Amino acid sequence: MSSDLRPLANKRILLGVTGGIAAYKSADLARRLRDAGAEVRVVMTRAATEFITPLTMQAVSGNPVHLHLLDPQTEAGMGHIELARWADAVLVAPASAGFMAKVAHGLADDLLGALCLATAAPLALAPAMNRLMWSNPATQDNRRVLESRGVRLFGPAEGEQACGEVGPGRMLEPHALVEMTAGLFAGGCLSGLNIVITAGPTREAIDPVRFISNRSSGKMGYAIAVAAQEAGATVTLISGPVVLPVPPRLKRVNVESAVQMYEAVLANVRDCDIFIGAAAVADYHPVSRAAHKIKKGQNEMTLVLERSPDILASVAALPEAPYTVGFAAETENLEVHARAKLAAKDVDMVAANWVGGPDTGFESDENALLLIWEGGGAELPCAPKDRLARELIAVIAERYHAKNKAQTS
Ligand code: C5P
Predict the structure, then answer these.
(1) Which of 261, 352, 270 is nearest to 311 (CA)?
(2) Residue nearest to atom 5 of ligand 1 (CA)
(3) Ligand 1 centre from 283 Cα, in Å?
(4) Overall average pLDDT of the 172-179 stretch
(5) Is 53 exposed, middle or buried (0-12, 13-18, 19+ CB in 10 A)?
(6) Whose CA is nearest to atom 2 of ligand 1?
(7) Strand 166-170 relative to strand 284-286: parallel, antiparallel, unpaired?
(8) Residue 358: which pLDDT band, with cuts at 50, 70 and 90?
(9) Residue 295 belongs to some domain of the structure
(10) Which of 98, 255, 257, 392 has its CA 20 to 30 A from that of 215?
(11) pTM of the prediction?
């Protein structure tokens, strides 16, 4: 797959098809969007079904096709508002002259028109019509209105038309439309990058019912995963046991122990551009796990522990290591310990935070971070973890791109 199409991975594309001869190309378009990793749902106008069957579009998109605005059956499942919310982008291809007029005037008298009004996602139209219909002042006025409202117009192209005339009005070819749709997502600072993030605590089993663990809630790591995804990255979240919901559309790998987390990271870190170790990994685990529940008896008992593998340091030491970011949770001398960690683990950045206080750290919804890298640093003041995560991602993206630029120049 072309690297230009990488932003389409895991994106939800709502493909609208209106009535025009170019609708036969919409099947190829849907297939190419899926090949690029997008999930595709198709909405057809009644006129579109005269040119290509819903069955064809269902087969190529892999999802049922949506046809009617007020069909009680579909509204009970995925109704027009859910569909509008579901979409990361709406692409109407082909978009007829009549459909352009409908969107320009905000008419919601069919499913696709209503969706275009109800969605907050980027909307792109790929016009396809006879050259005189395209050049008609009414259509050109509609084009200007649409563009002034931020609707993207992909094409049309010039050339031979189905009606035998030559001029502007041909729908762009599916491969070009797929590239332009990918371009809708290319603005994110981590667009097209693969990121692996660890989050949450680990549990180190003592016997079948007992374990050693820590107070990590996973909130920070999960917020970072969501922020990275918003910034255009494809995210793999390797998570210890937490009670947080799985953020939609990212790959989550569930693990329990430090050794399992280590193995899951190594299995997923190939082709990864950035690794963020936000998990609170147990430094030690019991040498052996008792097969049965340990019975009480003696007044004292000794648990023998051994060091867990250092996941972050192992990733940083890989021959083609990704940009690595580690966390340092400290109760004293924050900056000194963070600088020492940067050097000891040979990572690109350390995000240090105070823990142990009542209002910040592991279980709270707020946090503050001190970021340190070779030759620089930044302070991110106390903020809710989702906002802090976005700020952290912006700094990581900036440092990642700066490092890449330095290496390639
Ligand atoms: O050495 P320390 O535990 O303070 O380092 C914290 C950082 O290292 C965090 O980013 C944590 O996710 C990571 N770490 C790790 N594997 C370990 C211990 C810590 O990846 N065994």
Answers:
(1) 261
(2) 328
(3) 8
(4) 96
(5) middle
(6) 328
(7) unpaired
(8) low
(9) no
(10) 392
(11) 0.72
